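Chromosomal replication initiator protein DnaA
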Amino acid sequence: MDDNVADDLEAVNLAADWADISQGLRKDLGHQLHSQWIKPIQVGSFCAETGTLDLFLPTEFSANWVSDRFADRLSLAWKIARTEVRHVRIAVHPGRRQLPELRVGESAGQSFGVMPANDGVEMGGMALSADTIGTQGFTSSVGLDPSLTFTAFVTGKSNILAFNAAERMAKVETPQFSPLYLKAATGQGKTHLLHAIGHSYLAAHPRARIFYCSAERFMVEFVQALRQNEMLEFKARLRAFDLLLVDDIQFIIGKAAAQEELLYTIDALLAEGKRLVFAADRAPQALDGVEQRLLSRLSMGLVADIQPADIELRRSILDSKLSKFAPLEVPSDVIEFLARTINRNVRELVGGLNKLIAYAQLTGQEVSLQLAEEQLTDILSANRKRITIDEIQRTVCQFYRVDRAEMSSKRRARAVVRPRQVAMYLAKVLTPRSYPEIGRKFGGRDHSTVIHAVRLIEDLRQRDADMDGDVRSLLRQLES
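Structure:
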């Protein structure tokens, strides 16, 4: 293999490992800490001889801060992900122009809204001018991801209510309901909508004060203020916001003092006509360990449920992402395969597409169904429902009203061959079995017979609406 290609592949693998590690740290640390300190990290090179991996940050201050507080955690995470990593070295990105650190108050990086400075005073991946920083150390758009906007959010039946409610919350007119409570499982878009509300509200109210945090981060700040006898300042700062966005509210479970402060904050902001949005992975009534008064406040506005994305929405999401990669061609059968197979959450779906395209671009290969199966093994295996070939054969036989024994017979009658070919195609799409393994389950047929059947049904689905309808109906039965 060419050295340049090998280096590119190594870079892709390191990036994939870092994506997994970063996601885990986000869950452990909360969105705020993660956005401030972990997200800006860039993965450098790995030296196989010494087992040393370089991690780079934009400034000396941020590199020292991360090294002091997260070095052990980062080192352990990388050693688990890659046994060959023995040392993790945290440093300033080489060749990066160094700027004076932007500090607000005496405890830079410790209070709400203060982030490590970057080139162009970039904060949390978002360029801000110095005059957006308020006198209390807040920024008007702290922690908002610039890519998570309403325009980038793809809607379908499962999320249209939450989307419309979020848009209404961000408009100039006073919303009919507050607070808005977004309920969805992991990776279904609730965090995206929180960020989109913040961006849209800031566009309509340029001087608005917005605060976005996770419930875990809220508790961290609350405890720090309590220990430093700064509760009055904490309350004053928190209640000065025009829009409060709190993610993962389920993590405030059991923290009585923090719950009480959040309750008082909600009452104070609502009394002044301010807007509040909360997000969680469960309904308010399902939050065990939360005081009844707080549950009442959380559910008094609108609880908007985001259901798991259906197959049509997953297709639309993939199509919307493909425009970023033009003129790269992604075959329709690959999109269909990803949409059907990666069905746990939208985040994994988009991540799978990104990984596949990055691999294809860096290696010069064409995007194909075979490449998707080879490179997305972990994601696909985690999402696949455990459907067996026996189950597929039984369902196909019932659908076409043929005897089960025909799946293994040598008969060549069309009424038998076509259902058998459909069953082979479904076995390849819905199970991790290889062509030879599938052939053995169909009367010991050769793998070339299975390949022919798969390609034939794929072609027929493109040309024959009845065949496509049959396959779609069978897929719904088997995946339900």
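Strands lie at 42-47, 52-57, 87-92, 122-123, 126-127, 180-184, 210-214, 243-247, 275-280, 302-306.
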